[in-house]
Every structure is written in C-alpha cells, then in structure tokens.
Design goal:
The structure is a homodimer.
Chain A (H helix, E strand, L loop, with lengths): L1 E9 L4 E10 L7 E10 L2 H8 L8 E3 L6 E5 L5 H4 L6 E2 L4 E9 L10 E5 L7 E5 L4 E2 L6 H4 L4 H15 L5 E4 L4 H12 L4 E5 L2 H9 L4 E4 L5 H12 L3 E4 L2 E3 L1 H16 L13 E5 L4 E7 L7 E5 L2 H8 L1 H13 L11 E3 L7 H8 L7 E3 L4
Parallel strand pairs in A: 11-12, 11-14, 12-13, 14-16, 15-17, 16-18, 19-20
Antiparallel strand pairs in A: 1-2, 1-6, 2-5, 3-7, 3-9, 3-20, 4-5, 7-8, 8-10
Chain lengths: 372, 372
C-alpha cells in the first residue's frame, strides 16, 4: 500500500522545492491505525514549514497532477535561517482527520471510525499513527468537522489554561476574528472569562459580536488606544495572546494594561510604573517583521513566545487529555471551523491557491482533501 | 532642626524645575535614626526621576548656592508620560550613607555609627529612616564607601539569585564595565557562575579582564555576533540582564542563545526552534529608544522588565537580609564603587555637572556630599 505525500525541500542552490512523492504506507503495529486522510487544514503554523523563508511570489511550476513541482527562491539574506533544514525532504501538515482503514491488533475498535490526529505529515493520502493519538469523533461528525481538532482548539484552551496557571483573570487576544479567535470567544463565554478581542475591521467586529463577544476593539480606528485602555480597564486583563508578532501591537497591549493598572492604583505617581505584572505571549507571526516595544509600561512586564507543544509538556498528559475530550465533545459547536475552499494535494501547490492561503488572512482558510 | 533637600517638579506649563528646599528634619521615633547624609551616588535609576522626560540640554539656571534653580522644557510629545507627577514637588536619591546624628529610644546603639540606607530622598543633608533600614558599615568603612550599598550590590546579587530561582546556570550581562558590572564579575568569580560580559570598547574589556573576567565580548567589533555565540555556547548561558533596553541587543542575546541551543541539540531541524527556554531581563534604560526584536530565536523565549524592589518582594525579607549582610561584609572589596567626581547639592544642579552625569557613561560616576 502506498500514497501521495507532500514534501518541502530547501536546496543547496538557494531554492525551495515543493512536490508530491509516492511513499509506502507503514503497516500498523499492534497499537497503531492507518488513517485515510480526508481533511487537513492549512494553518499559519503549517505555512512556516511549507515555505520557510522562500519568496513564493516568485515561484515557478512544472508538471501537473501527481508530478507537479513548485520552485521558489530563498532571498540571500534569509538563507542562514534555512540552514538547519538544507537537503532534508520534509513532510508537512500538523493535523487532519479521516477514516481508520487499517488497525493493529489492539486497535480494531477504531476500524471504520472517523478520527482526528496531530503530529505532522498529514498532507498525505494515508497516515499511520498511534491509536492513543487518534481522537475519535462523536457520531455524526465528518472528517471535515474533525480536521482542525488540535492546533486551534488546544491553543485556544491553552490560553485560558495559561491564564489560570499564571494567576490572571481576563485575556486580550489579537487577530481575534480568526477561527481560533471565534473558538476563544465561545470558550470564554462558556467559562465566564472576560475577553478583549482586537480586530481590524467593522466586519470582523460584527462577526464576533454576533457570536457573543462583549469587548471588541478595532485597531484600524483612530480611537484604538483609548478603546483598548477602556476594555482592559473594564475586564482587568493582565494577560494577552498575540498572533501578529511584528510591529507595535504587543507593546500597545502592555501599555494599555499599565494605564489601567495606574488608574486602579489611584493615580499616585510611581516612577517605575505599577507593580502589577503584565504579560503578553506571541503565539503566531502573521507579521513576520520586527517586534517594536517603546517600554512605556513600567518594569513589571513580560513578553514571550508561546507554543502549544511546550505548554502541553508543561501541564502533562492527563490535563492534555481533558482538553482533547472537550474538543471532541464540542467539535460541532465551540470548536467548529469554517473553510473558504477545499482543494486536493496537487491543487495545494498551484500558484493561485498558494497565493490564497499564503495571505494568512484572518477569515480565509483552506482545507485540503488528499483523497479528492 | 532643618536641612536642604533637592526637589524635582513637573509643572503645568510643560517645564521641569529642580531646586533646593530647606525642610524640617523629622525627629526620630523610638525605632528611627537621623542620618547626616555625607555621600549619595547619582545612579542611572535616579536620573529618570530627577529629569523625567525633560530636555536637559535646553536647561536654564537662575540663582546660585542654596537658591539655585534649574528649568528645562519637556518636549510636547513626551508630556503625557509625565502627567502622573504633574504639580508634585518630589525628593530624589535612592541611596546614601552617613553618620547617625540622632537616634530614637530603641536605636541608641547606632549613634555615631556610619550607616547606609535605601529608600529615596537621599539628596538631602539629613534623612530620618527606620533603624531596621540602616545598614551598619564595618569598622573602617567611610560614608563614601557605603554610599552605593544597595542599588548596584543588591541588583548584582539579584541577578545571580534570579538565575538560581529560575533554574539557569550562567549569565550574560550588558554594559558590563559599569560599577554594577564589575561587582557582578567579582560575585560570579566568588560563586563560580559562568558570566558573559558584553562591553563596548577595548578599554572596558581590559578593565574587566584585569579583575578576573573570563568571557568578554565587544559589541563594537564586526565579529560581535560570532563572539557572543561562542561565549554563550561555552558558558551555557540561557539568562541575560540588559542595562541598555533600547535597540537590538536584547534580541541579539536571545539569538545567540538559540544558536547555541540548536548546536547543542545536534543540528536536527526543529521548525519552532529549540525547546530550551531563553530569557533576557531589561533592568535599565541606557538607551531609551524602542526595543527591537527580530524574533529569530524560536518560540521558547521570554523578555521582561526586572526591578530590584519587585525581586526583593518576591524572595522575602529573610533572603534580602542575607544579601544586605553580604554587602556590608564585602563593602571594601566585592562591592567597592568608584567615582569620577564628588560634588555638593548645589553643584549637582549646575549645567556642566548635569551634562557629566546625564551622559550615563558606563565608567563615569558622580558622588554627592550634601554636607560639603
């Protein structure tokens, strides 16, 4: 048994090459299953691995169907960052779902079931995984329903989890109209966590209010900083999660939190700022440019990277399993995802499709069906 | 009994005014003492309170001696940051030392002793403090010896303390040729902590090597990044303390740590970077410009503010007292400070003296003797 698998390869000549390879599908061991991958999303976190630092606007295509091959140049000054993966033909695709078509001796109960899995190499027709890593979908859920079971749902749950772990009581979230952002709105509503949603348009603001968001501020408005300060003051948020990364937004959130803390402190002047710890985690890089901080937020602040696997390692498998089970239970409600387009593996490498998902637009998302 | 006290006042008209006021000296309560302040240093952390956002290059002076008055404009766009202190005539001076000239009933044993104190308003001829806050100097130590007992020594000790608390094993330090940096070199040598010193000239490098520094890298050299990576690899440093704040240095330290971690990881490609947590704390602002991060250091990183009083609150009074006692014991060795110039309170407000200490040059430091 074999199947197509997408590969991404950084070459010595300074180009990146994407192709489809026909690879053997490993037979399942006793505790494993083979999933026929019928639905796998393209997340911003996949795009980093797919394209690395290559300039996809300069990509050229040869062949078609199974033999399609895309080549794009990596700008000279960004090649150093690609060095660790040079010459390695890498599979990609963080997560996906489909029917179990083969099962090892101890996993026969999963045969024919729709399961979701997380662990890379999902841009492929078949994927062999440990049965323990296959999350069974509830009756009635399709592969498309289950495709995005992990990255967004667990990240959103990880945000409220981090909030509790680090003794905060409310959150700020940027790029809040994303699929993930919509899940976070629903989680926070269900769990009574005050949430400040930062969006970039009236349409995004309406979308979030329609699903129950209370605090929505628009960074494209001249009143943005005042609106943010008001919302942070109302909610008492001292923790933010930023999907943007580049530019001034992380610093603006810290500044708003500091102004809110100073007001709460009664206005007495403290030369080093408030003693309230203010934290922002950058968990995405929609803007890959530099992060700029003016440090106008006292001394009690932190900025850091936040990565789902590191968070899961910190809380341990029992807590992770609780998160997974909640996702499975609520896959058609809280954790429902919306896609703009469904494409095949070969379509995924067409320049016009690449241009679509490489925009990483907040509310545009592509689903891949490798067996289409 | 009264004495002169320096005051700094941000006025409604957009100017900052510095002056000397003659103020009554509070009689000591049972648990208090009055110190005749004979030596108090001008630290970078004092300058922020002294001048706020005022443009001191445009300062004008009226009067002389006790009636000297300095007025400087606050640029329009920086006035918002000064709003919380508008109209408040504030004393300044974080620390200092001198002879106990009056003592309450329970503090008579300190009469005539040289003590050091921390707690603001030390740019004054007399200062009444709690006896518990007066750190008695060992025999033979002068007020000048004890003047800088707190800010630099406790900050330097706080760096190695933070290192242990957060499970790091080596440090990177910027502006490393400062008085504080020299203390840190001696502490790390005594306590066997590997330390990477970042300096900005050959002279600074020599100064540190002469007192026993092993790893010294010069950020003014073209080979800086390579040198930093080599030193971070050698020491295994995953924690940095940055006195500069603005610019790219904090990010460069994180980048060097990430390269070192990736090498240690054996070179296997990890798309999200190493899982080694890399941390830099900004504890000063020698460069008040924005901090710029290119985020080329994976996802396991943190940047934050570090402030001595917050650190002391975290570790609690018993640990703080251990630090204080170590400082007193080693005040003439590990914690010895060097001053370029000693001035009076009135001299401190002369434009040419302001120009000297407002440069915040790494190895130039002014001591004030309010009773000169």
């Amino acid at each position: 048994m074999d199947g197509l698998q997408l590969r991404t390869l950084a070459k010595d000549d300074g180009t990146l090459e994407l192709s489809l390879e026909r690879v053997p599908v490993p037979e399942p061991k006793d505790d494993e299953v083979v999933i026929r991958v019928d639905a796998t999303p393209i997340n911003p976190s996949d795009i980093g691995l797919l394209f690395g630092a290559a300039d996809m606007s300069k990509a050229t295509v040869t062949g078609s169907g199974e033999s399609i091959k895309v080549t794009a140049p990596v700008p000279e000054n960004l090649r150093r960052a690609m060095a660790p993966r040079l010459g390695q033909s890498l599979p990609a695709g963080n997560e996906g779902a489909g029917e179990v078509v083969k099962a090892g001796a101890n996993a026969k109960h999963l045969l024919g079931k729709i399961v979701a899995a997380f662990g890379g190499a999902m841009y492929a027709q078949y994927r062999t995984v440990r049965a323990a890593d296959a999350l069974e979908m509830p009756p009635g859920a399709t592969a498309a329903d289950g495709a995005s079971c992990f990255v967004n749902p667990l990240t959103a749950l990880g945000m409220t989890g981090t909030m509790r772990l680090e003794n905060h009581t409310a959150l700020v979230h940027t790029a809040a109209a994303s699929n993930l952002g919509q899940m976070l709105v629903k989680i926070c509503k269900a769990d009574s966590v005050p949430l400040v949603n930062v969006v970039r348009s009236d349409a995004q603001a309406k979308l979030l209010r329609d699903i129950g968001a209370v605090h929505v501020v628009d960074s494209s408005k001249p009143s943005f900083m005042d609106d943010l300060i008001a919302a942070v003051t109302d909610t008492g948020a001292t923790l933010g999660f930023d999907a943007i990364g580049g530019g001034r937004i992380a610093g603006q959130i810290l500044t708003a939190m500091e102004v809110a803390a100073a007001r709460k402190g009664g206005g007495a002047f403290n030369r080093y700022g408030s003693s309230t710890h203010k934290q922002v985690y950058i968990y995405g890089g929609l803007d890959t440019g530099p992060t700029e901080l003016n440090r106008a937020f006292g001394m009690a602040w932190g900025l850091g990277g936040w990565l789902l696997p590191l968070y899961m390692a910190k809380i341990g498998p029992a807590e992770v399993d609780k998160m997974r089970q909640r996702v499975a239970r609520e896959i058609k409600t809280t954790f429902a995802s919306h896609y703009t387009k469904t494409v095949s593996l070969a379509d995924m490498l067409k320049p016009e499709v690449i241009a679509l998902y490489n925009r990483r637009a907040t509310n545009e998302k592509v689903l891949v069906n490798p067996n289409a």
